Amino acid sequence: MVAAACLRRACASQRAALVVSMVGLTSRGLRADPDPEPKRPTDQYLAEYSQLYDHVGMLQDDERMSAYYDAIHLNAAAHFENKVVLDVGSGTGILAIWAAQAGASRVYAVEGSGIGVHTSTLVEAHGFSDVITVLRGRMEELELPEQVDVIISEWMGYFLLREAFVGSIVYARDRWLKPGGAMYPSSARVIVSPLHAPDFVAARRRELDDTMVAWDDLSAHLAASYGLRMQSLRPAYKKENQDYAFAQAWQGQVPARVISGEGVTVLDLDMQTAALSDFFGWTANIRLPAASPSSPIHGLCGWFDVRFCANGDVAADHCVELTTSPLAPQTHWGQTVLLLQPPLMQPSLAVGLEQSAASHHDLNLTLSTAAWSQSFSISADYRGWDGDESEGDESEGGKGSGEGGEGGEGGEGGEGYGYGDE
Ligand SMILES: C[S@@+](CC[C@H](N)C(=O)[O-])C[C@H]1O[C@@H](n2cnc3c(N)ncnc32)[C@H](O)[C@@H]1O
User: Domain ranges in the chain?
Assistant: First the structure.
């Protein structure tokens, strides 16, 4: 069944919600600094999820699928039987269907993109039309008929937070979760590991040199043939190419052999209590003991894990973990690589993260020491890190467009630019 959306502004309960948010009072207690109104997902972002094609990569990811399947089915008695469940960003509807299989009395499956036309089809095919209510629209703009016992969602993006879908989850929790209700997943961490990849960095520098030689050749040709003086644009072209390699995150499956030290947790949040401001706008001061003048670090490999140990009034029977560690079986997320220029030779480092001013779905990361600072963007426009050529197997290539890593979350990154992958 597809229910009509009720815009929040038009709904009677909005006034009560506003009063609550003005005094910073949530169902979980007083908060001195209430979160501002959530930023709704943009049309462009939702369009990335609108086709079945955009969901195939996620459905193929057995690490992801089995973690959610186990988390729901192994905790059926504790959290799902006879419970009201909200599935935020239901997509094809698989989590809602598993919640219904686990005995939920009612499941609200909310989906904001065009994929929602298929959600009801799959729900019907599993015989759950009487249990699952499909609601098409943005989470932030819908009214549910009741509060829920459990919120389930697969909201994680690159570096955990790219997409900023977590904002919709925090919103849904504060608005619709009963006190003592359970969050699936229940906690999330971001971890960074040092990277030893001198060949990969050297190859990027060679590419840059080759690119500028090609520019100079072009410039000479245009001068000789057409009298054009192109060299005033040389610095800008060089910067463009430098940023291309060193100021945007690389995304893909990072081989364990280039990880050169223990991972360090830079963010560790409880989904039951974390405020939106805990996810974005933070700085973590960390130590990477592996970094020294004799063993410089060429980059950071960032990844995340989430746990399903539901933290409501009733503990989970079985804690399940989904990790995207480079040392664990691959997932469609892969890992995020930030190349350091110059390499880091001392262990202290500050890692800062904020949402991009240009698009709240994208991230800006800053790495800094007392003497140096470097910024990176994590967006759908990532460079594809190809694990097979990342170290010790460098074929000359230049920047060519190809499949970025394993293809992105929600179809993003289909246009990766993998070195040597033409
Ligand atoms: C990562 S996919 C997960 C789909 C499905 N739950 C699964 O596990 O296969 C996230 C889904 O959330 C939807 N979505 C993102 N933000 C949303 C919002 N604020 N309201 C409703 N749907 C949203 C997207 O369109 C997308 O289909």
Answer: 2-185, 189-197+246-411
For residue 209, which amino acid is it? D
Cis peptide before 185 (omega within 30 of 0): yes
Fold of 189-197+246-411: Hnrnp arginine n-methyltransferase1 (2.70.160)
List the chain pLDDT tens, one digit each, 422 residues.
222 222 212 222 222 222 222 223 333 333 345 556 778 999 999 999 999 999 999 999 999 999 999 999 999 999 999 999 999 999 999 999 999 999 999 999 999 999 999 999 999 999 999 999 999 999 999 999 999 999 999 999 999 999 999 999 999 999 999 999 999 999 999 999 999 988 888 999 999 999 999 999 999 999 999 999 999 999 999 999 999 889 999 999 999 999 999 999 999 999 999 999 999 999 999 999 989 999 999 999 999 999 999 777 888 999 999 999 999 999 999 999 999 989 999 999 999 999 999 999 999 999 999 999 999 999 987 778 875 555 544 333 332 223 333 333 333 333 222 222 22
**Contact (Cβ atoms closer than 8 angstroms) between residue 298 and residue 197:** yes
Which of 39, 45, 108, 113 maximizes ligand 1 atoms within 8 Å of its Cβ, making it the mutation to test the pocket?
Answer: 113
DSSP β-ladder status, 25-26 and 29-30? antiparallel
Q: Alpha-carbon distance 131 to 85, whole Å? A: 10
Q: What is the DSSP string of 9-69?
A: GGSTTHHHHHHHHHTTEETTEE-SSPPPPPPPPPHHHHHTTSSTHHHHHHHT-HHHHHHHH
pTM of the model: 0.84
Is the beta carbon of 139 within 6 A of some atom in ligand 1?
yes
CATH superfamily of the 2-185 domain: Vaccinia Virus protein VP39 (3.40.50.150)
Choice among 48, 140, 154, 389 that is catalytic = 154
Contact 113 CB / ligand 1 (< 6 Å): yes
The CA 155 to ligand 1 mean position distance, Å, reads 7
